[in-house]
Amino acid sequence: MFDKLRNAEIEIAEAHCDGPCGVYDPSQARIEAESVLQLTKKILDLKAPDAGDQKASAAYQNTLTRFIAIKEERAELAKHHLLILWTDYFKPVHLEKYADLHDLFWKTAKLCSACKQEVSLEHAQELMDNIKRVHEIFWETKGKDVPWFMAS
Amino acid sequence: MRAQVGQASALFFMLREANWKDRISYAIGKLKAFRVQGDSMLPTLRDGEVVLISPKASVEPGDIVLAKHPYKQSVKMLKRVAAIDDSGRYSLVGDNAGESTDSRTFGTLPVAHIEGKAVCRVK
């Protein structure tokens, strides 16, 4: 009689979060920020062609424009993923343990903007460093030991 | 903020295991069985575990209750009563606060939303 308590027909009582999927991972922001860092390097390394070589000039303009466009897009995506973590995943209870959480996200989101406005290796690296810190805090709150790594 | 009539003094006390009296109460319909889904009541209740609910037991701060979700009509949820205010509204919080949507998000609930108290869990 009591065994039926173990069957699957028992009514469900939810004990979870209202997030539609509940799947979060700072890796999304990390991958976009890696693109920003790599594109910043590529823009800085790009050599302008000699004046007068129209074909080379067109190719240069095209490549530079693509680098800039993708850097812009990826920095915006990094910011998007960071804001999702900040506003949807993290809760007041996390703020009690990580008092600098708001400041970290605020500064990291601003670094995404700085990476769009500038061609700054320093800010692109700082963005990666901050996302690494987000990664560490995030997985600590999950109680999982997930080592930091980069795809590039 | 309103004065709190009752407030949980010691959260996270564990739910005892069902004994033979609980089993009889369940058999005659005095206790209802529900299966836990989700991690918001960890470490007290695990995903997949079965709890027995008493619809008639009196509820105090610190108790785990089955409550109707304020927005989703078909959803019932298990949460800990953190406080009951002087107008009789219940503040519910998951034991695993970092992975719980509760009164911190949807506010306090009236007594009509409280469907019963969790009295034990089934091993």
What report would you give on this structure?
Chain A is mostly helical and 152 residues long. Helices cover 65% and strands 3% of the residues of chain A. Chain A is built from 5 helices and 1 strand. The mean pLDDT of chain A is 91. With 123 residues, chain B is mostly beta strands. Chain B is built from 2 helices and 7 strands. Chain B has helices at residues 20-27, 103-106, and strands at residues 4-7, 32-37, 50-54, 64-68, 76-85, 90-93, 114-122. In chain B, strands 1, 2, 3, 4, 5, 6 and 7 form a 7-stranded antiparallel beta sheet that branches. In chain B, a hairpin with a 4-residue loop joins strand 5 and strand 6. Chain B is globular. The relative contact order of chain B is 0.28. The A-B interface holds A 1-2, 5-6, 10-19, 22, 91-94, 141 and B 23, 26-27, 32-41, 45, 47, 50-51, 53, 66, 69, 75-79, 94, 97-101, 104-105, 122. Strand 1 (11-14) of chain A pairs parallel with strand 2 (32-37) of chain B, so a sheet runs across the interface.
Unreliable segments of chain A (pLDDT under 50, ≥5 consecutive)? none
The secondary-structure class of chain A comes to mainly alpha
Portion of residues within helices of chain B: under 10%
Morphology of chain B: globular
> Can you write the helix and strand succession of chain B as a string?
EHEEEEEHE
Chain-averaged pLDDT of chain B: 86
Major sheet of chain B: 7 strands, antiparallel
Q: Can you write the helix and strand succession of chain A as a string?
A: EHHHHH
Number of helices of chain B: 2
| Number of beta-strand segments of chain B | 7
- Helix amount of chain A: 55-70%
Class derived from helix and strand content of chain B:
mainly beta
The average pLDDT value of chain A, as a whole number, equals 91
Major sheet characteristics of chain A? none
